Write the structure tokens for this entry.
Amino acid sequence: MSQHNSGDIRRRCLCLRTLIVGMMATAALIANNVDADDPPKSRLNRVTFTDAKSVTRMIESRVLLEAQDGGLLLEGRDGRLWNVTPKQLQKREATEDPFQPLSAEQLGEQLAREVAEFGIKTPTQVVVTKHFVVCSTAGRVYAEWCGSLFERLHDAFHAYWKEAGLELHEPEFPLPAVVLKDRAEFAEFATKHDRPDAAQAPGYFSEPTNRIILFDLTASPNSTPAKTAGDIRRKLEASSFNVATMIHEATHQLAFNSGLHTRYADNPLWLTEGMAMFFEVPDLDSRSGWKTIGRVNAPRLKDFREISRMPRAFLPLAELIRSDAGFQKAEQSRAAYSESWALTFFLLKSHREQAVAYLKLIQRKPRLIADSPDDRLGEFQKAFGELETLDGDWKKWISRQGK
Ligand SMILES: [Zn+2]
């Protein structure tokens, strides 16, 4: 398998959660978790504040949360979340106007403006599909190919959950994707958009901005640019990991925009990552439905087997459930990812009813409220039964897969 990323990076997904974990420390201050049906949530507010980089901004938004100390969690018309502390807040104007997401065209213009403001000179092209806005410096053919891949994933994702009996909704916002022409541009954009370590990833979903940030995976210094969708397909088929990255990040975005998870809620990382890996097996056939959902993810299974055989590498199941810490430690993250895939795969394939009930519980988690490790474990055991039995069943079941 051709790969231009190191083995370590390829297993990691950067979902930029550090910020969120820090914000959860302020959960005690949260007074008012605004309910989805509560009218104030749907009103347009104009909020002026100084952001973390000392830039003064006026954001047209709705207020998702209001803390006792006056701090706000805002959602902009582009779907971006802003956490505004009382110290940063300058002015808040509540209007009687309804809150409305930007149109796909407006969102596309905003993304193109930002790419230019970040110093990227390559002209952008915006491709709008039914649910996605792809702003790209990689040329129209590639942007269109991405848009159509994402749409097929959207349909397959919704069909899967409908069949499983889990109610989801269509995304409220047009879903933004920024696709840069090569790794260098990606690194430049990611560093300014998020932070320098984002530049190391092969692509990522940003929970605060609701965007997926990717680059043209067919671009390499020694090859000619893809001119047709057929060219792209041939190049990507030679490297299934690259397509898996795109699908992985787009799955995160769909999950957070369809009600499967809630942004800034305390979603267990084994579950959000496990879900993205469950869906990431590519199906490049554009004429029929997505046939690979629910199939064994061979590279992840291989990883899982290797880790199981290494002394002291395997994270105990209770540890994986109780805490996200394994994902953040360099020496444990490979185990955390492969075990999360294996656990999600096992639960969805062999305990689907319980898994759907558990997902319904996770769906209702409030924003910015952190659960204790014991709460997480307790909820998991309530859904799936006693841990020791499940652990044994899980390992036995996985050992039979892919044979
Ligand atoms: Zn991920």
